[in-house]
Fold this protein.
Amino acid sequence: MAGPGESGAGAEEVSLVSRALGREQALARLLALDGRGELTTEHAQLVARSAGVSLRTVWRWLDDGRQGRMEPAGRQRFRITDELHGRLAAWCGNAAALHRELVGEYAAAVAEGREVDPVPSLATLHRAIRLDLNAGQRAALVGGERARRRHDVHLRRPCQWRNACWEADHKHVPVEVLLDGELVCPWVTWFIDCATETIPGAAVTPHQPSRDAILDSLRIALSRNEDPTGPYGPIGGLPSLVRLDRGADFLSATVADALGHFAVPVQPLPPYRPDLKGSIENLNRCAEKMLFASLPRCTHAPSTRLRPGARGKHAVAAEPLPFAEFVRLLLQWVTWWNTEHTSQALGGRTPLEAWRDDPTPIEDVDPGLLYRFTLADDGRMRTLTTSGVRWRNRYYVGEWMHGGADAGTKVRLRYIPHHDHEIEVFEAASGKYLGPAHPSDEATPEQRRAHRRRKDAEKRRLARALSAASEHTRTWYAAVTEAKPPERLGSLSAAEADRAADQERLKDAAEWALPDLIPPAAPPAGWRTPASLAALTTPGRPAPVPSGSDGASAPDGPDGPDGPDGRAARPTTDEDGDAS
């Protein structure tokens, strides 16, 4: 007879304690018995049977515990350091090119007689990249931040009530329609209620929408019509919050004033973050797959041509829809979405049924105005996705999942029975503990801050790797003091470059002296100066004749110290009037 929790005699036995945790618990108990001198072989045999290991393994565990090591000794292996991560980013994730570079550096070092560590094989390098870099980091090496974000885990907003929050967006329709003899791709501006997934209002424009399209769709969304045959029916009323992207029209003064008069706050979201308005982005995606793809002259239709952006002949030859007919089909699809389309997130109900089942009062507008270690395991393997891990019809996420949400990662869950507020996630293949996870739609403010910090940390790590890549690929040249081509240097760090510049500045100042920069003044006119020296002097007024008490301060003139007639010459005065 099958026991409680078993489906039959052949039911798989579920382990309540993982091997790593079982070793830790067993060692703590065996060391306590050994310390009191009560340890016997029966104790070790009991642990061996429960853990599924041999008796010799239990004695080896005990020897490790006496030496202070409670966990299994890890294997020494080659690891990807920050420096290797930067060089790998410089090669855009090309591990083979990095391996060739490392082999070349090793051969050069051996030729110079330097002792360096041997280069691992290419297979070892690939294995280290898979173990040390998560899926998001590996994708970022090739595609950058946009590729890394595809592996991020996104939170789900808590379940709210109708009209608690709306989201709005523009959608460029990939369908050519005919308007006044010209083909145009219209735009649709619509709102969605995040709690019930209902569409309270929409407006279509043949060109890029502006404030008038937003105000038209907003007016339809705020008003209500109890007639269920219309595209919106009784859906509408005043929301408590409206989330918009950073479009210039959505943030215009007219829209802010229109919602501000009803005391409805507008929350502008940061750019390039569609995950923050998932409801409206999901609506855009569903409309493109459910409606736009079936219309004639869809620009996203598949084609047999190889040229990027080429369209199939059947799509070009199709007769375009008139603009009015396209609007009619769009409003008909909106009616189907609200009244007939069912959603798993709504428990199999239509958006209109979810709206009517919500008892929250509607404010109409006046027409005038889990623990760290768990104990149980259900024995199933699950796949980690960008929405987290699914358990009991709910998604659970943890901040450690950011960048590591690989579509092929298999995990197992452990939990405390009857406690579903937190679960523990382990790697299915190795039993490695990955971390806790909490319900995606019930995250606390602290958990949300932890998610944002982890996302920012992944972004900063990529920035450091890209910065290291730019430093690695930069070319350096030696400084020159003569007219000759500079000598190319090896890889030089910024600190080494600064030290080299300082050494150049501290050279002997005599090497930089320029004695002929300012020529001397011309000697007095009566001096006998060689022509070779006179050519190096500054032309202009002669320098004044120096005076001295020895009477030899000036050379004799052609007739001696006196004048031509033997008499003393008249004293002269300088520009200041002093006698010279």
